């Protein structure tokens, strides 16, 4: 064959002998992508143990990138083992599937993240696992509902959308008194507002599991879906890890890298979201269209005292979320028009990104019971981004004066 048209050495392109020098060091950890990982020998393949992260066996079971992110998330939350999953919701679902079997019961706060309740009403019920919704603001209600079939209690602080802050240490004590595993959806606290495994700061009281939607603050970009499951108990971790492996859950290396890149700034971003949210929540308190502002750091918001004792060191820490109960004299159509009229606040789900979001909710369809802590009205949830406070305030002011006329 003509030398000019010789076939390329494809084998050489695949099995190239070059090995880059060791010792590369830079701010960001490397992005390792793999389904297959190589074993140096058959003997090594038979011997390698992936469960304790002492080796690599298959991309789904871990790479240097995912191991690194897991360890950093343990540091964020004060745990000792971590599993990564493809979304916050899959963190909640994996915990339930790992710990519950036919005949068991799970207790869920009535103000929990909606899809966690939908999982109980759907797949869990279908598998013969029952559920009850408890009043998170009444620890006696939780205790009264625990029975010999209760295997898992979900906790959330504050509750989704309506933002009531429960007495978390007391709810955990009630679970411990009944020897029932308690799992916290710690997306709001993010490992920053309080320490889930050391609630009182004395090392004596903590949740068993912290599930976290990394989609929100750890990602911080509104562009990644991921979740984590952190524990301090090796046996509990292994039980969930085996289920996680059998379900085939994993995360992409580029997404893990995006979270690793955002993680160093998470505390700064969280504090900035908090500052703006509190200012806007206080502004709403002075508006005549507003019947109630739901933000745990505001005096008078349901559970404020519980927030104060758990997160209130100094001026305390809270995430960038709050809800406003628009007075009942305004119609749903007027409230919807107010949301549509906002320019900087986009209409969208989720939170923790740079862009402020707004979402009206019909609370009656989301709760088993009506809470006496909530005023009548139409609820609008705000997720505050990183824009300037005065621009956001102006946006609210303009749309409110256009669409919620003083009556
Ligand atoms: C409290 C809470 N937990 C879990 C999730 C689920 O996270 P993801 O969107 O990553 O599934 C959300 C999402 O909004 C949430 O608000």
TL;DR?
By secondary structure, the chain is an alpha/beta fold.
Mean pLDDT: 96
- The rough form would be described as globular
**Element pattern in H and E:** HHHEHEHEHEHEEEHHHEHEHEEEH
- Report the bound ligands by name, code or SMILES: pyridoxal-5'-phosphate
Low-pLDDT stretches are none
- Helix segment count? 13
In what order do the strands lie side by side in the largest sheet? 1-7-6-5-4-2-3
Gyration radius, in Å: 24 Å
Which class do the helix and strand fractions yield?
alpha/beta
Portion in strands = 5-15%
End-to-end C-alpha gap: 90 Å
Main sheet record: 7 strands, mixed
Can you count the beta strands?
A: 12
Helix content, binned percent: 25-40%
Description of the molecule:
Helices cover 35% and strands 15% of the residues. It has helices at 10-14, 42-47, 64-77, 88-99, 114-126, 139-145, 168-177, 234-247, 253-262, 266-285, 304-311, 332-341, 389-403, and strands at 81-85, 105-109, 130-134, 150-156, 181-185, 209-213, 227-231, 290-294, 321-326, 346-347, 357-361, 378-383. Strands 1-7-6-5-4-2-3 form a 7-stranded mixed β-sheet, sandwiched between helices. A 5-stranded mixed β-sheet has the order 8-9-12-11-10, covered by helices on one side. By secondary structure, it is of the alpha/beta class. It is built from 13 helices and 12 strands. Residues 87-89, 113, 160, 185, 187, 213, 215, 225, 227, 350 line the site of pyridoxal-5'-phosphate. Pyridoxal-5'-phosphate binds at residues 87-89, 113, 160, 185, 187, 213, 215, 225, 227, 350.
